[in-house]
Design a protein that fits this description.
The complex is a heterotrimer.
Chain A (H helix, E strand, L loop, with lengths): L1 H26 L11 H13 L7 H32 L1 H14 L8 H8 L3 H25 L3 H9 L4 H38 L5 H10 L3 H29 L1 H4 L3
Helix pairs in contact in A: 2-10, 3-4, 3-6, 3-8, 3-9, 5-6, 6-8, 8-9, 8-10, 9-10
Chain B lengths: L10 H25 L10 H11 L9 H32 L1 H15 L7 H8 L4 H24 L3 H9 L4 H12 L1 H25 L5 H10 L3 H33 L3
Helix pairs in contact in B: 2-11, 3-4, 3-6, 3-9, 3-10, 5-6, 6-9, 9-10, 9-11, 10-11
Chain C lengths: L3 E12 L2 E13 L4 E5 L6 H9 L6 E6 L2 E2 L7 E4 L11 H11 L4 H14 L15 H13 L5 E5 L7 H17 L3 E5 L3 H7 L2 E5 L6 E6 H8 L7 H4 L3 H22 L1
Parallel strand pairs in C: 3-8, 3-9, 6-7, 7-8
Antiparallel strand pairs in C: 1-2, 1-4, 4-5, 9-10
Helix pairs in contact in C: 2-3, 2-4, 3-4, 6-9
Classes of the chains: A mainly alpha, B mainly alpha, C alpha/beta.
């Protein structure tokens, strides 16, 4: 049957890779463990960072630090980005006024803000949050804006016909109407937040998963690099799942289509 | 039909509003810079930045002038992006056609997707040092997913009737892929290339901030350590402009392909 | 007093930088509590007329008045039923219906009473907490009509409300609309391109010319309905079988064909 064949092949592939890993590193020596760790080295590093710690902290401490910054930057960016997107989507005048400045800022890749942020705010948390802000802000604005513009015009007309006041229009018509696109924007913002944070921590940080990666790189410790990468991936996946579950809870009428 | 009740601003009005917005932005910048709220070193005035950008066009900083740095960056970008496209697009098409290939690769791909391209930097440094391989790996990991996904979607969701027509005419697998699937997925592929280029360029910048000895990112890091905000901002502008040019060029290509197809 | 008056109403529209007249000197009065159907070839501007009465568009020349006052903008006194339903997909059936009443700051108790009254009227019992996507087209349109009705509007503007429904559902909705209209008559402007629907429902049928639209002819259906006693038949198909009905319908078809020939010829 279709589904189980897919599952079978997928599982088989992953299992194969997992088997090849120790074989190629430990048995045949095809992969130089100075460049890519064997499963044993990986496990040892994982144990090390979880128990004793590495780069001035345990895995937990580094993860919490990174997570903390991502969440803070994300929340600030989204708190500014969504209202701005709503305003620009609703008012053509506001859009005309703000657009040129926005177009100026937009092409600058979020990571390009890092040197400036370090210059202005040093190597601490504030600089990281600033960079995450710029990274997460843009997708939030654009997607909210598009979300408003994509609302079926007749729905807005119906709302006006029903005599809807301004605040109710925003809260009960515009925001729910744009919600699917707003959440797409949030997912992109979250992704951008993680990427930017890791980069910022790689450039300069005291703790955090990026710092772990940085130190492991300087120490020429590939096993720890792998641990760091997987930790980043797991946190990225976990935070995205949280966002998606919020999305599904808030928009039950969409999950039927999905 | 506009969203709200007020009349649409005319093109002229929109233009002036836009200018007003820009003017406000510049005015605030200049005001903060001149007033000394922030030390001049940290927030140069717009014209100081412009001047510096202009200077850097021939005056070397951190080893080379701005155009040379840009050329080095672009070189890496081009190599990494070409590789990503050359691997991603054919692979995506094949995955769209051969279901078993899709079943094999998608789980692995989905797993790796959450590791952002930047997280590959340490491995890139470990494996390639400051050589060309490092940035290429990073750019590849940024540009590859959109190229793959879009080619895959284009092939997978191609109109069944084209495939059936090809089969009816007795076309073999390879020929079907090259002469039916590929052209049919062209618009999707080009869109994927554009998105991949954007992500690739961004990843490059990130890579150069961390591990490089030349290139615009490197120039910016040097500017930062020397507390030359003007240089840093000049770098940001240069990166933004090049990124914009790449995006616009690919958008034109995309529009061209769509027009040829009669899509809107 | 809630008559709709179109006085020399004209409207231009723009496309690709050029202006075209959509309506030219439309003169029509829908008297208080009268049901007028507006028919015409596609693109003749009948929807534009409705939108001007609703306040979504403004005439470029002439005036559109409701209750003697020039239409200021959309409002619950001129309730609209859209062809595409335009329900809020994120609200349940009862929340959709209650929305307009909340805007009027109606106290909760009275609101509940009115909403359940209109739910019963439209046959929506047991669907109160359903969401629009869970309902068929016909049910959704019932909700849209309920939403308009609950406002107890002076004027009801219906823009091809049954256009998106299949033929059988359409007939059922037509019968229901007649039933409701008899119970609580109000001023109605009903847009349709289905001539039989217009003749079955309306007191008068106004026929428009092709673009730029203007009123070609107005037929008094009410007089014929009374004289031939159409109301003795409950079923739509029985009424539509009557000779007087067929004559009227054919006459309107001929008027519309004139317009079509003028277009092609």
């Amino acid at each position: 049957m279709h589904i189980s064949r897919r599952l079978a092949i997928g599982t088989a592939t992953i299992v194969t890779l997992l088997v090849l890993w120790p074989v190629l590193t430990l048995v045949t020596g095809t992969i130089d463990t100075g460049r890519f760790p064997s499963p044993i080295q990986f496990w040892q590093s994982l144990r090390q960072i979880v128990t004793v710690g590495y780069a001035d902290g345990t895995l937990w401490q580094h993860a919490i630090q990174s997570l903390k910054l991502v969440v803070m930057g994300f929340v600030v960016a989204v708190s500014f980005g969504i209202p701005l997107g709503l305003l620009m989507g609703w008012s053509r005048r506001a859009e005309a006024f703000i657009n040129p400045v926005f177009l100026l800022i937009r092409p600058i890749p979020p990571l390009a803000w890092i040197p400036l942020a370090i210059l202005w705010l040093g190597l601490g948390d504030a600089a990281k949050i600033m960079v995450i802000f710029f990274a997460a802000f843009v997708p939030a604005v654009i997607n909210t804006f598009t979300g408003i513009r994509m609302i079926e015009p007749h729905i807005i007309e119906a709302a006006r016909m029903l005599g809807t006041g301004r605040s109710r229009l925003v809260m009960e018509v515009l925001v729910p109407g744009a919600a699917p696109m707003i959440f797409t924007g949030l997912r992109l913002s979250l992704q951008a937040s993680w990427t930017t944070l890791v980069a910022a921590e790689l450039v300069g940080a005291i703790t955090g998963l990026g710092r772990v990666l940085n130190v492991a790189q300087t120490d020429i410790y590939p096993a720890m690099v792998l641990v760091g990468m997987i930790a980043v991936g797991v946190l990225g996946w976990a935070t995205t799942r949280v966002l998606v579950s919020i999305e599904l809870r808030l928009m039950p009428w969409l999950s039927v289509r999905a | 039909m506009d969203v709200n009740r007020s009349p649409l601003p005319s093109k002229v009005e929109a233009f002036f509003l836009g200018m007003a917005g820009l003017a406000c932005f510049v005015a605030i910048w200049v005001a903060v810079s001149i007033s000394g709220l922030v030390p001049r070193q940290f927030l140069p005035t717009p014209w100081e930045v412009a001047l510096r950008t202009f200077n850097l066009l021939w005056e070397p900083f951190a080893g080379a002038s701005l155009p040379v740095h840009l050329a080095r960056s672009f070189e890496r970008f081009a190599s990494g992006f070409t590789l990503a496209a050359a691997v991603g697009v054919p692979l995506g098409l094949l995955m769209g056609w051969f279901r078993w290939l899709d079943d094999m690769i998608t789980p692995v791909f989905d797993g790796l997707r959450f590791i952002s391209p930047i997280a590959w930097v340490p491995f890139a440094a470990l494996w390639f040092g400051t050589g060309l391989g490092g940035p290429i790996l990073i750019i590849f990991s940024g540009a590859f997913p959109p190229c793959l996904i879009n080619a895959y979607r284009g092939a997978r969701f191609v109109d069944r009737t084209y495939i059936e027509a090809a089969q009816m005419l007795g076309t073999g697998n390879l020929r079907t892929i090259v002469q039916v699937l590929l052209p049919a997925s062209f618009p999707a592929i080009v869109a994927g290339l554009r998105i991949g280029a954007g992500l690739g360029w961004q990843s490059l910048v990130g890579a150069e901030l961390i591990v490089a000895s030349a290139g615009v990112g490197y120039m910016m890091v040097q500017g930062q350590s020397n507390i030359s905000t003007r240089t840093v901002m000049a770098g940001m502008i240069a990166i933004g402009v090049v990124g914009l040019v790449i995006d616009v060029a690919l958008r034109q290509l995309e529009a061209f392909v769509r027009r040829r197809r009669g899509l809107r | 007093m809630s008559a709709i008056q179109f006085k020399d109403a004209s409207r231009l529209f723009e496309r690709d930088g050029k202006t075209f007249p959509a309506l030219e000197n439309v003169n029509l009065t829908v008297a208080d509590k009268e049901f007028v159907a507006l028919v015409g070839p596609s693109g003749c501007g009948k929807t534009t007329c409705l939108r001007m009465a609703a306040g979504f568009e403004v005439p470029t020349a002439g005036r559109v008045l409701v209750g003697g006052i020039q239409v200021p903008g959309p409002g619950p006194d001129r309730a609209v039923v859209f062809q595409q339903f335009a329900l809020f997909p994120w609200k349940s059936v009862e929340d959709n219906i209650a929305f307009g009443l909340r805007n009027k700051n109606m106290p909760a108790e009275e609101r509940r009473r009115r909403v359940s009254g209109v739910i019963k009227l439209m046959g929506l019992e047991s669907y109160e907490t359903a969401f629009p996507h869970q309902l068929s087209g016909g049910m959704q349109q019932r909700v849209a009509i309920a939403r308009a009705y609950v406002l107890d509007p002076q004027v009801l503007l219906m823009d091809e409300p049954f256009g998106a429904l299949d033929a059988q559902t359409r007939i059922v909705m037509q019968e229901e609309l007649v039933r409701i209209a008899r119970v609580n008559p109000r001023t109605v402007l009903f847009i349709t391109h289905a001539v039989e629907e217009a003749v079955y429902l309306a007191d008068r049928v106004a026929v428009m010319t092709r673009r730029p639209g203007r009123i070609k002819e107005i037929l008094d259906v009410r007089a014929i309905r009374a004289a031939e006693n159409w109301d003795r038949h409950e079923r739509v198909e029985d009424v539509m079988d009557l000779e007087s009905f067929v004559h009227l319908r054919t006459h309107i078809w001929r008027l519309l064909r004139d317009e079509k020939f003028a277009l092609d010829g």
